[in-house]
Amino acid sequence: AAATFARGDLEGRHIVISAGGTREPLDPVRFLGNRSSGKQGIALAKAAHAAGAHVELVAANIDTGLLSVLPADITITPVESTLELQEAMHSAQERADAIIMAAAVADYRPAETTDSKMKKSGDEGLTLRLVQNPDILRGLVDERSRQTGLSQQIIVGFAAETGDADTTALDYARSKFLRKGVDLLVFNDVSDDRAFGHDDTKVQIITSDRGDVTVGEEFLGSKDHVSQKVIATLSDKFTH
Ligand code: CTP
Ligand code: CA
């Protein structure tokens, strides 16, 4: 059955949502990026707002046309790189009753960024050296456990997974849920290439109930519909 929330379920709650995809600068005009449009995060922001929350959206490289559909009282903080996103999330964390990390975060960034435009040299190819980015979600979970004032905060992650020969996409998602220490993990099955840039998405919400990992039923629908389901599940966490 489609879970829906009642208007007002998140009344008085402050929800911080990251959305879009990070861009890792190489030089003043070039970056390494990904195809995330930000539509999922925008749909979540709308759903949380409709449930009565005060919403803060940290928007990584989202088209202004997409952002313009949002209610005017949603605070938007634009960021580009993973390090900028990390800083924005950490400064928003202290205000948040819940955090939803829907952004597609680059796992790596160029080891060096130059202040002037890179020039070609000779006829050779180019090898870029990358370094690993911080795991923002992990950092937020760790910070929550360090600060007693944040102990009630609910943290939600997203995971787009594909399966392979010996591990299913769901198995990968289940271990990611445990590894990340989040309260909810929205598992997006992208084996059939549904997620990126499209309007329909297939998810299962992984959560835990008194220590037991529970995997919700497969839920297929528009990003708006999926977001309502996520917000309804999040609202339940507050009331329990
Ligand atoms: N995430 C994050 N910081 C990163 C990478 C990911 O906060 N550096 C968040 C994403 O926003 C998402 C969740 O972690 O909510 C899972 O992202 P995913 O890329 O699936 O996880 P990774 O830990 O990067 O694992 P993988 O090696 O499978 O990419
Ligand atoms: Ca990753």
TrEMBL record:
The keyword Metal-binding applies. Residues 10-234 form the DNA/pantothenate metabolism flavoprotein C-terminal domain. Pathway: Cofactor biosynthesis; coenzyme A biosynthesis; CoA from (R)-pantothenate: step 3/5; Cofactor biosynthesis; coenzyme A biosynthesis; CoA from (R)-pantothenate: step 2/5. Its cofactor is Mg(2+); FMN. One of its GO terms (biological process) is coenzyme A biosynthetic process. Residues 15-240 are annotated as: Phosphopantothenate--cysteine ligase. GO terms for molecular function: FMN binding; metal ion binding; phosphopantothenate--cysteine ligase activity; phosphopantothenoylcysteine decarboxylase activity. This is Coenzyme A biosynthesis bifunctional protein CoaBC. It comes from Brevibacterium siliguriense. The lineage of its organism: Bacteria, Bacillati, Actinomycetota, Actinomycetes, Micrococcales.
